[in-house]
Amino acid sequence: MKRMRGETLINLLLAGMLLLVPLAAWALEEPFYITLATRVAILALAAVGLNLALGLGGLVSFGHAAFFGIGGYAAGILATHGSDQMLVIWPVAVVLSGFVALVTGAISLRTSGVYFIMITLAFAQMIYYFAISWPAYGGEDGLSLSLRNAFPGIGTALPLNFFLICYALLIAALYLFARIRDSRFGAALQAARQNEVRLAAVGIAPFPIRLVAFVLSGMMTGLAGSLFADLNRFVSPSMLSWQMSGELIVLVILGGTGRLFGPVAGAMLFVLFESILGGFTEHWQLLLGLILLGVVLFARGGLVGLLAGKARHG
Amino acid sequence: MQTALLIEQILNGLQFGVMLFLMAAGLTLIFGVMGVINLAHGSLYMLGAFACAAVAAATGSFWLGLVASLAAAAAAGAIVELLVIRRLYDRDHLDQVLATFALILIFSEGTRWLFGSFPLYLDIPPLLSGAVDLPGGARYQLYRLAIIVVGIAVAIGLYLLIAKTRLGMRIRAGESDREMIAALGVDIRTLYTIVFALGAALAGLAGAMVGALQSVQVGMGEPVLILAFVVIVIGGIGSIKGALVGAALVGLVDTLGRFLLPLSFSFFLGPSQGATVGAALASMLIYVVMALILAFRPRGLFQAST
Question: How far apart are CA A305 and CA B99, in angstroms?
Answer without folding.
Answer: 18
